[in-house]
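Thread: Class I SAM-dependent methyltransferase, structure

OP (GT): Posting the sequence first so everyone is looking at the same thing. Length is 260 residues per the record. Can we get the structure tokens written out before standup tomorrow? I want them in the notebook alongside the other entries.
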Amino acid sequence: MTSSRPVGTVTRGTTNPNRLRRMDRWIAAAHGAELRRAGDPVAVDLGYGAAPWTAVELLGRLREVAPRVRVVGVEIDPARVAAAQAYAREGLVFRHGGFEVPVAGRPVLVRAANVLRQYDEDAVAGVWERVCRRLAPGGLFVEGTCDEIGRRHVWVALGSEGPRTVTFAARLASLERPSDLAERLPKALIHRNVPGEPVHAFLRDFDRAWAAAAPYASYGVRQRWIRAVRDLAGVWPVVGGVRRWREGEVSVEWGALAPR
């Protein structure tokens, strides 16, 4: 049973169309099969912000891989929920709520982008645990941060057991070096990018691999990225393969980057 009072606080609500495309593409690739198998494939856009663009886009992208999926946009600001009703349609509804995730049953996916960045770091673990308890068996919670137009994005993927992976994704032409993504680390990691912490060491090694892969730039920035990730995978527990790397992504096991 969910709480009668929304859990959380109102955030700035900044949003833009197409901002979460990189996260959405990764979710569709990584979790599409689970959404297709689910008897009631419900996905939640948690904290969609001042305008409902991200929920509308999530429905379209997920239905390309799971035609029966339904999306529930959840916002803690009642005025935003009221304004979003004009965008409701078959498969898309909007509800007032917060981290209690006020939907019937258990969702197969919960996505929260640019929400926890506005909270204190010590609040993150409790939110993660609370949301993960609401997941259906095999469900996924994706939480992270991106820039205003979605060129740079870092997110954590969690299951019922807790965090699994961290994914770094970018429009590669926008990067001078991989550590440029540090400014978009999610709240659990943003203050940990300092010497002695694993995420700092990871970004340092990624920059070194990027520099060593400079000769591949003559074949394009994508080939340079792929070469750098191959080298990185020899040192860090990189998850996935070239298909995702080509998209300007790299995922790493959470345990390797978790704060000390």
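GT: Both are above now. Quick notes for whoever picks this up: Residues 116 and 123 are 8 Å apart (CA to CA). The chain has a mean pLDDT of 96.
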